[in-house]
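Annex B. Sample input.
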Amino acid sequence: MDAWREVLDWLSGRGLEVVLIILGSVLLARFVGWAGTRITDRIDRNATGGDALVRSEAAKHRHSLTQVLTWAAIVLIYSIAVFFVLDRLGVPITGLVAPATVLGVGLGFGAQRIVGDVLAGFFIITERQYGFGDVVSIQVLGGMEPASGTVEDVTLRVTRVRSPDGEVVTVPNGQIVKVINLSRDWARAVVDVPVATSVDVNRVNEVLREVGRQAFRDPALRPLLLDPPSVMGVESLDLEQVNIRVVARTLPGKQFEVGRDLRARVVQAFRSQGMQVPQAATAHDPANDGATAAQEAPR
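Annex B, continued. Sample output.
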């Protein structure tokens, strides 16, 4: 009976405190997560709810920073709760300093990659290399193909990217060796039009200039363009054809949409002029389109 009474006394005293600490930490962590989600949702609504076609760089940075602060706050809450629970259980916290130091050194050697991921994530966020909603191409250490797509989540440890095929790619921040941001400030749509060497190049240039002027006057396409598309001239010369390049500065992330529209306009313009439609201009390869845009997008 005495042992049972001691258990009841402990449960009504320190045991109840332990339960309240655990319950309070869980509720507080969930509240922080809920508040972080509300803040990020509000940032997204303000960034896309107006007339702006793309979210601003400040909005993307605030979204990523809110996610990181929410994650850090939740970790801090649970860490403090653990110390309080150990104290209520009668475990001497000061006596854990030496074992914790040894354990920390061991974990430091064993978790060097995690530490590197966290440090890399810290600099990614503070330097605003990319943020939520950016279209990026990430080259990973030792990886053959870069991870390309839209950034859906940025934490101190990992970056999650949604590929054009709908796949979610998780990249440890410490393994990133190169990032190409396709939606920073502005982008460039590049269209290479192959024509036969027998065709008058000057006539082709004039047709392409008219295509650019019509595209810039189009109410549907005009908001995506920063200036009228330009004809750069002959880009390359082969035995049977020449490639004439057309470029257009666009809003960030809109270079692919503008490029597809310009290709369709070039095909229609060639047909209306009675010119042969080049086979390469009618075929569309999303992978090549992304690679071209990545090469021409500003760093």
